[in-house]
Predict the 3D structure of the following.
Amino acid sequence: MPKHAILGLGYTGLRVLESLQEEFQISSFSRETTVADSEIYDFGNAETVRKFVGEYENSPFDSLIITFPLHSIPTKYVLPKAFSKVSRRKWLLGTTSIYRREGEIRESTPKNPEHERFEIEEKFLESGGKILRLSGIYGPSRNPADWIRKGLVRKSKRQLNLCHISDITEVIKGILSDSQDILPPELVFSDNQWHTWWEIFQFLEEKGRISNYPEVEPDREDAFVDSDLIRKFLPGLQTKDFWRELEKLEESP
């Protein structure tokens, strides 16, 4: 049976592990989160990276799912090659914000070379890695309405792109099942639904969940994330209805 590994047990990594560990043989590694049989590894430490390679180089994983941003850790230039030594395939979870906002965003959209992730992610691709670029992640314990309540967003008609954590889990299930490695090196993923912050504000205001806010002008250009390509490779992929999920999140304690 193929064995896989999830590196990083933050919001996304932990939920992917919980959802897929019964169906797949998955090891997990985290700097500080311990669940089930997960192991403590600080991949920002060069000695830890050498230890990881030494332990798994002769018994490599079929695939790695890297959930933490490479650009933010000291060993970022070492990790792409190190991960290649311990796994046949390696996938990094990235962000669609790396693309230029020039209309619709898809895999062919030019990237912003000034983005903080650009340099290291290009090196990761050159090393044979693949990247799943995600739009805004929401789900249990991550409610977009709370972003409003905290003052993180404003009531404008700016388009936003979202994907539910359980849908991301389904995509990663497809990645782990891709034994012939036919998936393209870069894929973007969103729920492919049109939302504006104005509509979300209105929805919550009408239900009395937030106060009434004045509308403001968008602070950036619209850019719809078109994730049709990933659906061609994973034709059974279904995504949750945002409005229904928002109601559920608002009803939960």
User: Anything to note?
Assistant: The chain has a mean pLDDT of 94. The first strand starts at residue 3 and ends at 7. The CA atoms of residues 70 and 76 lie 5 Å apart.
